[in-house]
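CO-FOLDING WORKSHEET

Operator: S.A.
Ligand of interest: zinc ion
Run index: 135
Mode: holo prediction, single chain
Checklist:
[x] sequence pasted
[x] SMILES validated
[ ] output reviewed
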Amino acid sequence: MMATKAPTRLKDITCAFCQGTGRDPFGIMSPLSTCCVCGGVGTVAIESPYVQCAFCNGTGVYPHSRLTCTACEGTGATPVDEPNEPCPNCLGLGVDPHSEAEFYCAVCHGAGVVAKAGSRPGGHAVERGHKATAS
Ligand SMILES: [Zn+2]
Ligand SMILES: [Zn+2]
Ligand SMILES: [Zn+2]
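OUTPUT RECEIVED:
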């Protein structure tokens, strides 16, 4: 039996918030307190494929704050569907252009990219880019 949908593949990446140290980078509670994102492990599991969180530039830190990025939850990466294209709402910036509070873009969830229109899981993939020219 062929699975119609690719199984979720979790990939361990370096925790962006603590940069893999496992410690709270800002030491709000204590310099020795564990990172709230990875729980002190230094890595986080993220669904693959993923892209660097455009909203926080992959830092895992909410812009202009010492809080975890709400878009990627501090991991610095956001799972995306493939194929994908730059988000038309935020133009790939991951920031809601209509919000003055610098909220992440709700369309792409801060990723800066969205699933390419026309490509649906289980649907017939549009063939493109195949050059028919014989060599
Ligand atoms: Zn961490
Ligand atoms: Zn982020
Ligand atoms: Zn967007």
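REVIEW:
The two ends are 37 Å apart (CA to CA).
The pocket of zinc ion (ligand 2) is lined by residues 53, 55-56, 60, 69, 71-72, 76, 110 (CB under 6 Å).
[x] output reviewed
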